[in-house]
Amino acid sequence: MKYKLIALDVDGTLLTDDHVLTPGTIEVIKQIAGQGAEFVLCTGRAPFSCIPYMEQMGLEGYAITHNGAATVSVKGERVIHHFEMRSEGLKPYIQYCEQNNVHYDLNTTFGLYVEGASGLSQEALDMYHKFLIEPKDLTERPLDDPFVKMTLSGDIPVMDKIMEEWSTWTHEFNVLRSGDYFIDLMHKDSSKGSALKHLAEMRGIPVENVLAIGNYYNDLTMLEYAGLGIAMDNSPQEVKDVADVMTASNNEEGVKIALQKYCL
Q1: pLDDT 10s digits, 128-147
Q2: What is the pTM of this model?
Q3: Are 180 and 218 in contact (CB under 8 A)?
Q4: DSSP-based three-state secondary structure for 151
Q5: Topology annotation, domain 5-82+190-263
């Protein structure tokens, strides 16, 4: 088999719009994994919301999470690699969100810190790993692990306006439109492509033996890096232009179709 490392985006790629992982896709992935290929989920999600899909498919190995900011092992949930954000540098962005009433959260590899989280039930806190942290505490409050991502969320016009206004800023972070309703900030060197490259080198897998499938702007770097980059039919045109080939949409089992064509 030519492709030894196969990177799959999750939302809009592996999952349908109803967030379903189809039995047919699972079957094909298990078949290819049984022939020796390694699968890695490469997603904007946190580990706790993507590792269950790896387990559902019977896969171990690794997950690239937070849009490349942190790579973790599925077994034991250990941090393999991460891009640490400077807390002091986050302050202007937090101030902007506070002044413009924009919702944001701060992510460590395994934790999600949300202002106002103290109003949630303990069950919700436990389920979503959310803990209260106030902006003023960013550099004062000791943390077990560093921040790797800040996420802003809101309606499309709000996100469009922020991206337009921030285009005039000088950024120390990578500012990424990770979805219609989301903007992510990460370390300037953090991306799905850089994390996938680091993992491939760690596993001793040449780039020509790496395949990646994605559908959105946050997938561009991994599609560019991989020996074969495949865009979903539901991708924006800019993503299709970067990819080597295209497959069907996420609602038409595009991942299954691509893997059958290029890996079986």
Answers
A1: 555 555 555 555 544 557 89
A2: 0.87
A3: no
A4: strand
A5: Rossmann fold (3.40.50)
